[in-house]
Write a structure and sequence with these properties.
The protein is α/β, with parallel strands linked by helices. About 15% of the residues lie in helices and about 35% in strands. It has one domain: L,D-transpeptidase catalytic domain-like (Beta Barrel), CATH 2.40.440. The chain is built from 2 helices and 11 strands. The chain has a 5-stranded mixed beta sheet. A 4-stranded mixed beta sheet has the order 7-8-9-10, covered by helices on one side.
């Protein structure tokens, strides 16, 4: 195999692992407090369809981000998921709750030094910006438990979909 093929397979394997409902918490991950907590401690999942939109994740058009599943759903006006995909979070997690998209950047450098695109920010925790983004080179960041990062990495294709969907003011619902 070429080096590029090996890297691509490693990235896909890592994202599949992160999407697993049984994946352990990330080393060094923090949980923040929130003024808008979700009422249930854990939103029930449809175990027959693991990628199914979680019940109790809100209503109407929204982005749903599951901390425990490392997965995102883009939900249309009709309350149905248009798209769902795994993500690779940073080391700082937002608290469960509902947040509006507050800012967007087409192209910047991530805290890990990687060029990223389609950054969609929705909150901050102790000065760490929390948002979705895609690495231009398609890479997944190596987790450093000592670094405080809030970037939630997605593939470039999923990043394109998030960019089109989550404009300023769009609701992001964070669940366990």
């Amino acid at each position: 195999m070429t080096g590029l093929t090996v890297a691509a397979l490693a990235t896909v394997g890592f994202l599949a692992y992160q999407a697993s409902a049984n994946a352990p918490l990330r080393p060094g991950a923090e949980r923040a407090s929130s003024s808008t907590p979700v009422t249930a401690s854990k939103v029930p999942r449809d175990t027959r369809h693991p990628g199914a939109l979680p019940a109790g994740s809100g209503a109407g058009r929204r982005v749903v981000y599951s901390l425990d599943d490392d997965r995102v759903w883009l939900v249309g006006d009709n309350g149905r998921a248009r798209r769902s995909f795994p993500v690779a979070p940073g080391t700082v997690d937002p608290a469960p709750g509902s947040y509006p998209v507050t800012s967007r950047s087409n192209s910047i450098t991530g805290t890990d030094g990687t060029p990223i695109e389609h950054v969609v920010r929705f909150t901050s925790v102790d000065g760490v910006a929390i948002g979705f983004s895609a690495a231009v080179d398609g890479s997944v960041p190596r987790q450093d438990p000592e670094a405080r990062t809030g970037g939630i990495r997605e593939s470039r294709t999923d990043g394109d979909a998030m960019w089109e969907f989550a404009t300023i003011g769009e609701k992001v619902v964070v669940i366990r």
